[in-house]
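Incident log, structure service

09:12 report received: a user says their structure output differs between two submissions of the same chain.
09:20 pulled the input from the user's history:
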Amino acid sequence: MINFDRYGHGERKLIGLHGWYGDRRTFKPLELSLDPATVECAWLSHRGYDSSIDIAGRYDVAEMASDALAVADRLGWTTFSLIGHSMGGKAAQLVAAAQPGRVESLILVSPVSADPVPFDGPTRAVFDSAPGSSDNRRMIVDSSTGSRLSPVWVNQVVANSVHNTKAEAFAAYFRSWADEDFSATIKDMAVRTLVLAGAQDQVISAEVCEAGFRGRYRNLVIKELEGSGHYPMDEVPLLLGAEVLGHLQA
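09:34 re-ran on a clean worker, output below:
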């Protein structure tokens, strides 16, 4: 069983699936906006990351989804919502496709769609070599936030990624979220879904989300978050928290 942190004790249940650079602390900033008396959250650490760093696995998106369901079962949650960031957004969609009767809603933050990512050659080379290169990890974080944030913050994100993730897992997760095609599985989805894209995200823009999600979800809202790039949890935590709260209460 993978490890996770818990927050709150309320009736609404929320599972958090972090992204490629994240860990169980990714969604901690949401606790500034969510009342612990009304919501109960499980912030997961995927295999090969942070508190689950020594748990072996395939290190892929489908495994992330099955692990999330196992956590829900362990907690006795019959229904729940999911929030997923970046690659976690791809995994959250698989959970909803596998057990649609249990997933009340999806909140997908800067999410990877069900499709393979159409990298050009040079960009693909940067991502492929990121597991062994702090410089390339730094380049990815900086460019995905519009090259406008403090290098102190960028360096901290990279340092956390290097120290809290197995390089083997980091590489395998990349190949999974970048190359695997779940488009045949993610179609005509009835689950209520909110997609949030940062206005300064140079990788997954609102336009990219329109192409990747519109037509696959019957009840879909796509919003652009001003002042944010690929990491709204860090860049605009209270704005993100308000959107999450509104979606859970709807």
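09:41 both user submissions now match this output. Likely a transient worker issue. Closing.
09:42 reviewer note: Strands lie at 4-8, 12-17, 39-44, 80-85, 103-109, 192-198, 220-225. The mean pLDDT is 97.
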